[in-house]
Amino acid sequence: MTATFYATTPIFYVNAEPHIGHAYTTILVDVAARYHRLAGDDVRFLTGTDEHGEKIAKAAEAAGTTPQAYVDQVSQQFRDTWDRLGITYDGFIRTTESRHQKIVQDVLQRVYDQGDIIYGEYGGLYCVKCERYYTEKELEDGKCPQHDLEPEYRSEANYFFRMEKYRPWLKEQLETNPNLIRPEGYRNEVLAMLREPIGDLSISRPKERVPWGIPLPWDEDHVTYVWFDALLNYWSDLESQGLDDRYWPHVQHFIAKDILKPHGVFWPTMLKAAGIPLFQHLNVHGYWLVEDRKMSKSVGNVVRPLELEQRYGNDAFRYFLLRDMSFGLDASFHELGLAERINADLANDLGNLLNRTLGMLGKYRSGVVPSFGPLTAEDEALRDAFTSLPNAVMREVEGLHFDRALAMVMEAVAAANKYVSDQKPWELAKDEAQSERLDTVLRGCLEALRCASILLDPVMPGKMQELRAQIGVSGDVILDDASHWERLEAGSATEPGEPLFPRVDLEALKATMDVAGGSEEASEAAAPALEHKPEITIDDFAKLELRVGTITAAEDHPNADRLWVLTVQVGPETRTVVSGIKAHYTAEQLVGTTVILVANLAPVKLRGVLSQGMILAAEDAEGNLSLAGLDRSLPDGSEVR
RNA sequence: GGCGAUGUAGCUCAGCUGGUUAGAGCGCACGACUCAUAAUCGUGAGGUCCGGGGUUCAAGUCCCCGCAUCGCUACCA
């Protein structure tokens, strides 16, 4: 009896090139899919690209091309990357495909017809100066708390999905099914979101503003905004091919934690409204925290994991990613950690087991696979260590504990190394009377390698096939082959080759990291083009009144923990300025500092404190701040022009 | 401020429903072996399980109060 496995990655937004985040999710699903295929399950693995929206239309324009040509190109880039990483997706869906668009429209129409999509007359009380809506509660005496203005009633010209209506239902689903979202921490987060109203969801944009999208079937002036377009891919891919009966009942999604809300809240309510059964699992993983190299923080200094994939090889890279992250938690990505993992597990333990086995086999048995003699207790222990693994490994894979699954296999490999030391084939070889014993020991090592190669095949498909080739096994394998000990053919020839996983020279690596400090790559990181604002005239600029000021005090904001309430001396005037630089400057650093103040900015209340001006600071792409000042001392109050 | 996560050996982390002297891998020290990619095998050193209270016969594991780091969020004129 075979099971069915249908897993998805998110479809990736094509406004940027693939990076480690995309790659990790995709590799994860690939590994899971490969394990299930190995187990004989009916598998479907879906990925794809999300190709609509304003950003893409603009990016295409900037690139001097049409949106379609643009998304064709970037989507292809994703597929090229997946090919390089050995991703075996069964389906690749693009939101610009007509099969997808048609189904999105069908579903929208259905949900609309049953009254769950309404025109956005919600609107509400809108403060023109703030450019935002206020709830009754937020207003002070019916007026905007910032501008003391009477807000006006406005309605957005959008359609809304009545999501709030399904909140109790979703809550109940989560409460009755603890495995719906896993690991548990993320389930709790979603439950927390559902404790308070989730509101209705804006699902459209005016076509005149965003022409690059799927038109609403009942209103050609609006296009679908992201959610119904993107999320429905998981369903549309199946339905458009008549595969929904076969796979949908088994669907599970894999995502990174940053898109928990759309998948944990929006998506299930959308499914409910559309009359589509809920998914089985939403599997949420953490981030790879990619650390800066030593010292410098300059751009381009960052280790780019996908470059390391090419340097260390795809299989080793996949192994590292799966082995060193426990599902759901964040993990840190160090090149040194990757290298150490490769040496310890792959080169020293597994690779060397192959090497020493084939070495002895060549020396003592001309490289020919021997037969087993009678098995001793030690032989049986080794056998059992491996043949019990397929079930255990699958169990861990199903529970998303890929790290544990791999650790279990490597434990068995370590046991095989110990077996070699204990049995000492090199001594058996010296005694003709021990010939059968030597056969048995060498054969045991070969079987261990064969089993390991199957158990690790989903993670390192290329290298494991290579391993099997070296021990004389060709063709496809199935997981069950690893449950049996005597699957090699006695008398067949082995074909020793290059070491499977060359050791990484850690000393040399450390040396380059110390010396380079990242500078080598810094220069080649092309700075992205600057985005410019509309040109202004000198008269526009003259409207600004910039003055030198001195910070005389910095106090905590009573009602916000990321804001400073600064007292700034500007000549004869003393101003209060609320500033969001608390994460970057301490009070000690600020007091006495000379700053440049926008002195004629309209005062504004920020969380209850009146701010009379704004302090200038520079901010880089990574969010680092530096206050603008003067390079020689001038009295405060001086004007800056 | 609200919500949440994390904090266990030098490093990376396991420790499910509380139960014998707290674990693994790497690194380190010493020893063994020599078939092997200076690999392997064995032994050992090393921990106030963030801190403080509490519940219990018993707490890394449950409760309360803190601290630190991170994330989301409010906010950043």
Question: Would you summarize the structure shown here?
Answer:
The chain has 641 residues and is of the alpha/beta class. The strands form eight sheets. Strands 1, 2, 3, 4, 10, 15 and 16 form a seven-stranded parallel sheet that branches.
Notable traits:
Isoleucyl-tRNA Synthetase, Domain 1, 7-stranded parallel sheet, OB fold (Dihydrolipoamide Acetyltransferase, E2P), 641 residues, RNA-binding, 23 helices, Rossmann fold, alpha/beta
General description of the model:
The protein is of the alpha/beta class and 641 residues long. It has three domains: 4-285, Rossmann fold; 333-483, Isoleucyl-tRNA Synthetase, Domain 1 (Orthogonal Bundle); 538-640, Nucleic acid-binding proteins (OB fold (Dihydrolipoamide Acetyltransferase, E2P), Beta Barrel), CATH 2.40.50.140. It has 23 helices and 28 strands. The strands form eight sheets. Strands 1, 2, 3, 4, 10, 15 and 16 form a seven-stranded parallel beta sheet that branches. β23 and β24 (609-611) form a beta hairpin. α4 packs across α8 (233-239) and α16 (402-423) packs antiparallel against α18 (435-455). The radius of gyration is 31 Å and the shape is globular. 35% of the residues are buried. The model is unreliable at 292-302 and 516-528 (pLDDT under 50). The chain binds one RNA strand of 77 nucleotides through α6, α13, α16, β21 and β25.
